[in-house]
Amino acid sequence: MKGIIAKEPGGRDQLVYVDVPDPVVNPGDILIEVHAAAVNRTDILNREGKLGYVKNPVIGIEVAGIVVDANGHGGFSHGDRVMGLVNGGAYAEYVTMPANRAMKIPENLDFNAAAAIPEVFLTAYQTLYWIAKLSKQESVLIHAGGSGVGTAAIQLAKGLSDAFVITTAGADNKLAKCKDLGADVLVNYKEKDFAQEVENATEGSGVSVILDFVGAQYWKQNYQSIAIDGRWVLIGVLGGSTVEKVKLMDLMMKRIQLTGTLLTPRSDQYKAELTREFSDETYELFEKGELKPVIDTIYAIEEVQKAHEMMEKNKNTGKIILKVKS
Amino acid sequence: MKGIIAKEPGGRDQLVYVDVPDPVVNPGDILIEVHAAAVNRTDILNREGKLGYVKNPVIGIEVAGIVVDANGHGGFSHGDRVMGLVNGGAYAEYVTMPANRAMKIPENLDFNAAAAIPEVFLTAYQTLYWIAKLSKQESVLIHAGGSGVGTAAIQLAKGLSDAFVITTAGADNKLAKCKDLGADVLVNYKEKDFAQEVENATEGSGVSVILDFVGAQYWKQNYQSIAIDGRWVLIGVLGGSTVEKVKLMDLMMKRIQLTGTLLTPRSDQYKAELTREFSDETYELFEKGELKPVIDTIYAIEEVQKAHEMMEKNKNTGKIILKVKS
């Protein structure tokens, strides 16, 4: 079969579409004919050899395709359309994945749309529900509303919890997208102090949940914005990791729960349970069109270098998709 | 009736045992004949007028006594022995308390022992179970093991969860007490680096839960000591509140849940639910002697100035009790 490898650890020019060995189907796996793969930041790190050196790795962790070998796993049959996160090898004609992490694709979605779901929606779901325990009609502040996880989080918070969603972004076209997806309050952080906007929008009580991709740069304002008994989830440090002074008494006075999380290093068991629950909770909402994958650009697999360039330059506001099979 | 008031906001010499008005029994309250009250740090702040000025406040928040007016609350009858946290007025012959925060006293315990239970055991229970969600046989690091909350937490973690308990204290006689109460690993923090001891005792994996009364001074070592997916609960800042240079990525890498909490400012509803659950879970263990209130000294109510002096000088390792009725 053919797949995208990095000839040597390095830049985009190292990516080539060449003959590679067929994947080995181990117990626990199913074999998928890949129709679309999505580009993730971890793919760039893998290409650069920053995830530990592997010779000529087949890049990619997110796919949508058709089951061609269910390998005895009762939940799947030859021909089923599935999507999910894989342990590498997604930019290829075939890939294996653990059967307990594969999700059936809602009927109304094509493979490109399906490939845009797993990473951002699973991360947003985990953060909002497994960590922040968002309840019905609570308020939530979602930073980077135009990002992949941001757009997924806005939709889940509205669609599953009828939450009051305040979101920040640095460009009006991104905020317009957030509004389309259901956000209630839109803050351009370049023009306004989001803590003040949160105070106004919540009549001074603050938000129950914060999804924080930004870290140090927003520390003070996030503290001002959170309600008593609020849950503050750290899932990124785009604005720096080091906070110069943290007053622990502040955390006690507001009884804040501050949780750091990463999805990728979690156990297989955790990911399987998360995948199952997410699929159960959201399948129908995707089918009805109440949840929508957000795609920026679809490239042919041969255009992988352009796709990586787009991600490296942060030009996208939705997912970047590689079409593997027409 | 008679009660202890502060003549003026100030020192111990302001405390006098004098005639005061009988308490008013409001709907929701029961009336208790007080047999014993316990001394708490908040009593000193109240005496000093630091909790907001009230003229001649009757001091005290923790009692054990006998119900003399159940005021229609079906759960109680005249003559029941009860204990609990009250909204002031505990150092007196009679006090009212919300019926839904009163707990029946296990039969084997006298009033002095019962008065030593509510504050420290409810705080330890809330911290270990409602916030840190301690599971069976998990590991927990309990700082200030000789303190009131520390001694309660060690017993609850062993008695309810068969947990692996590592505890710190600064004196060998305190550690000996912790050992009596069931602690598995004892660390004199003046002689050893507790983070190293935790590493040795957990074979490098760290503890699942930390009860942190110390704050800034232990920040680095607590971070070293906590396991992946660990829950770290801040309930005091005896070692300073301000931490310099906190790296948020560290919290993400270990997926730490850091929660600040205080019990006193919680809602009446919260305290009522906590009291009920605590009483259900622990009543039998107190009766069997598997949980034991820890008393340092019992004073007569007339010796209240000595009792406050002992607390102010941090001389006690268990509760200080005021005997109101013989």
Q: Which oligomeric state applies?
A: homodimer
Number of strands of chain A: 16
**Most extensive chain-chain interface:** A-B, 27 and 27 residues
Helix content of chain A: 25-40%
N-C termini distance of chain A = 16 Å
Q: Give the overall shape of chain A.
A: globular
> CATH topology of the largest domain in chain A, which one?
Quinone Oxidoreductase, Chain A, domain 1
Strand content bin of chain A = 25-35%
Do you know the CATH architecture of the largest domain in chain A?
Alpha-Beta Complex
List the total number of helices of chain A.
10
Instruction: Output the radius of gyration of chain A.
Output: 20 Å
Largest sheet of chain A: 7 strands, mixed
**CATH-assigned homologous superfamily of the largest domain in chain A:** Medium-chain alcohol dehydrogenases, catalytic domain
Keywords (chains A, B): NADP, Oxidoreductase
Organism (chains A, B): Gracilibacillus ureilyticus
GO molecular function (chains A, B): NADPH binding; quinone binding; quinone reductase (NADPH) activity
Domain Enoyl reductase (ER) (chains A, B): 10-322
What is the gist of this entry?
Chains A, B: One of its GO terms (molecular function) is NADPH binding. Chain A has ten helices and 16 strands.
How does this structure look, described?
Two copies of one chain form a homodimer. Chain A has 326 residues and is α/β, with parallel strands linked by helices. Chain A has two domains: 2-117 and 294-323, Quinone Oxidoreductase, Chain A, domain 1, CATH 3.90.180.10; 120-260, NAD(P)-binding Rossmann-like Domain (Rossmann fold). Chain A has ten helices and 16 strands. The first copy, chain A, has helices at residues 41-47, 111-115, 118-131, 148-161, 172-180, 194-201, 219-225, 248-253, 268-287, 304-312; strands at residues 2-6, 15-19, 29-38, 62-69, 81-85, 94-98, 103-104, 139-142, 164-169, 185-188, 207-212, 226-234, 242-247, 257-260, 295-300, 319-323. In chain A, strands 3, 4, 5, 6, 7, 15 and 16 form a seven-stranded mixed beta sheet that branches. A six-stranded parallel beta sheet of chain A has the order 10-9-8-11-12-14, with helices on both faces. A two-stranded antiparallel sheet of chain A has the order 1-2. The longest helix of chain A is centred in the C-terminal third of the chain and has 20 residues, at 268-287. Chain A is globular. Chain A binds chain B through residues 215-216, 234-235, 237, 241-262, and chain B through 215-216, 234-235, 237, 241-262. Strand 14 of chain A pairs antiparallel with strand 14 of chain B.
